[in-house]
Design brief:
Blueprint lengths: L26 E3 L2 E4 L2 E4 L5 H33 L1 H9 L4 H13 L12 H7 L4 H14 L3 H9 L12 E5 L4 E5 L5 H11 L8
Antiparallel strand pairs: 1-2, 2-3, 4-5
Length: 205
Amino acid sequence: MDIIDGETGEIILAESDTALQGDSYLIRVGPFRFGKSGLEVEGSPDFDACNQAITTLKQVHGVIQLAIGDLLNYMQGRFGEAYAQALEASDYTSGSAANVQWVARSVPPEVRRLETLNYEHHRAVAPLPIEQQAEWLEKAEKESLSARALRRMIHKPQLPPPSDGRAKGIIYYEEGRLEIWCSNGNALEQIDAIIGATGDLVDWS
């Protein structure tokens, strides 16, 4: 069964497929049923069925994360202080709630591509203007980029061009290695600046 509409990204859970009102299961994906106590499997699904279930659940996770952000934004706008009280009663910390709210607020529904990309892809483009968000998400979709790869491509720092006489070189993201050539003695300053700019992308330790 499909639990996500391929065109709209809407979660589809027919009444027969969800048991929020009972003790059976919460989500069903093909032969897999996921309840409050864990996984139940019907029959002996093959490897492809397992892979398809994982893909579908990743889509659901992305939809739910942004849906939570949308709902928290709505509650905050409408209920004010009562929203803060509801947040305290939930399992969300103020930091994690603020994060999903920021992503949901920054990436509008018409730009999102939750049919093929996950929440982390959308978090990677959230700081960008909407036009650039759409371009990067389209690129990630067409090239099957991971969220990590997308984030690195978006936030890759640009070294000064060779013509200005300052440092130039190569950043090896996977290895956490930096090669710099400099003709004016300011290499250390340039390296410090690059390490500071890429600290969230590269483990320089």
